[in-house]
Amino acid sequence: MSASGGTKAIVAALGANLAIAVSKFVAFAFSGSSSMLAEGVHSLADSGNQFLLLIGGKKAQREATPQHPFGYGRERYIYAFLVSIVLFTVGGMFAIYEGYEKILHPHDIEHWYWPVGVLFFAIVAEGFSFRTAIKESNELRGKLSWSQFIRRAKAPELPVVLLEDFGALIGLVLALGGVGLALLTDNGTWDGIGTVLIGVLLVMIALVLAAETKSLLLGEAAGIDDVKKIEAAVVDGDTVTGLIHMRTLHLGPEELLVAAKIAVQHDDTAAEVAAAINAAEARIRDAVPIARVIYLEPDIYSEAEAAKGADREATPGGPAQHPTDH
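Above: the chain's sequence. Below: its structure in token form.
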């Protein structure tokens, strides 16, 4: 996995979650708090998710084969999507079920200092992990807002870790609130309510992750800035006089496919056109290094064909298009 994949953030989150999961299960054993059980399962699920991200990053490095000529870059998207499924089922639905049972059959929290102490420890550990993820993300985020970064990021690992850590911190606050109210009111129902809220939070985060990774799996175009760089690099004003239409597709976070129909002079020789295509490919790779698979088709620009617009049947592939914010 490349540095942009956020390996450091994943490892930091994995270490924190494993330590936190053990401490939460110990606290549950001594206190009987359902919030602690739900949080323990949450941390265990998060640890499994980090393993999935590391596995996806490793598998994505495999060389292309005749059966998979564009390589395995999308393995990272597949494993990120599995993370959302694990978070939804193991984390969210289990917590909702456990909280529901605790509300129906409340019982007092024993040895209150165990869950309270572990929750404060977990907040510190998750805060460290979240800080690492933020630091790694800031190197790539630029001027984008956090929501824009999560929506536009082509590498899924950092958005996954960011959302997991953010959800974990909110979940710890909910657990602390549930345990605290249960102790203050001497009513274990509050512990169950806190557990249900943790489950709802995890389900919401899982749905966001599923939506984002689904978009990546379907195939996203290059970002707006990269599209503009490619458009500017294609045309040299001499042999390549214009860009008729273009499509881009991420084969993985660090690999981009570019397919375009370019306008050339009607009296150029085959040798001149071939040289122009090679030069255009070199300019594209200089402008956008991740553009590793490039197909350029020469054609003669026609105003009549251009007037047909984006009609795919009239003009196969349509004109060059700029991607939306997503």
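The beta strands are 240-252, 255-264, 291-299.
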